[in-house]
Description:
Layout: E1 3-8, H1 20-32, E2 35-40, H2 54-66, E3 70-74, H3 83-86, E4 97-101, E5 105-107, E6 110-112, H4 116-129, E7 132-137, H5 140-152, E8 160-165, H6 175-184, E9 190-195, H7 203-211, E10 215-218, E11 225-227, E12 230-231, H8 235-248, E13 252-253, H9 256-263
Parallel strand pairs: 1-2, 1-10, 1-13, 2-3, 3-4, 4-7, 7-8, 8-9, 9-10
Antiparallel strand pairs: 5-6, 11-12
Helix pairs in contact: 1-2, 1-8, 6-7
Amino acid sequence: MRKVIISVAPVAGDSTRVHPDEVAKEALDAAKVGASLVHLHVRDKTGKLTRNLTDFEDTISRIRQGSDMIIQGSTGGVSDMTIEERCAPLDCKLVEMSSLNAGSVNLGDTVYRNPYSEIKYCTERCLETGVLPEIEVFEMGMIHNMKLIGQEIDLPKPVLFNMVLGHKGGCPATPKTLALFSQYMPDNALWGITHYGRREDFSILTTAVGLGACLVRIGFEDSNYIDADRKADRNSILVERMAKIITDMGLKVATPAEARMMLDLKPL
């Protein structure tokens, strides 16, 4: 039976309260209903992206104490940090995976800057630290960027891409976009989906699973909507909904151990 990984990104980008105990509880509650991976940025208690790892390390320590879910530290986010500072989570011993942004893109009125040299640097740091990159692609050209980097650097196998659709200024979250992206994925690569700004329903996420996505990211970082009229007050509500969709499709929600096998990560 095909398995699908549910990744939870529990902290909204505009949060002004990001306390380790509260974030860890959101992650652990999500794990109980199907999330096998947690995606976290390095933030201070006011929600600001920071180079200081104190609160981040506190958060992931609490998560590890309460679950075996995969911990993914982000090297992304729009900030004034250098790429070296953005890569700081790669040195945290509990971090098994990292997001790796594969190019620059407009996010509304903001330019999310990821030049080729910095993509390459981040890739090299992932290899040095043994952290598996999840390659975030907002545009088709970003897949090509990683093909070029793969000619210079031996990327970890399997290569994992995550389509990030729905940002203003990026690719729209439509079935046509999904179909195009999925056809352009390199042979033998794994891929997942993030629907930023999702409001109406879970149809794009569901369609992605139907097209072969092995990973679905959900959570307050991308949207807290249950449907067009209702918002969730806990990430676990969204994870539980996604888990039901996956099982209703006749598929299996991957456990953390199964997700590690799928991604060729070391077992705990």
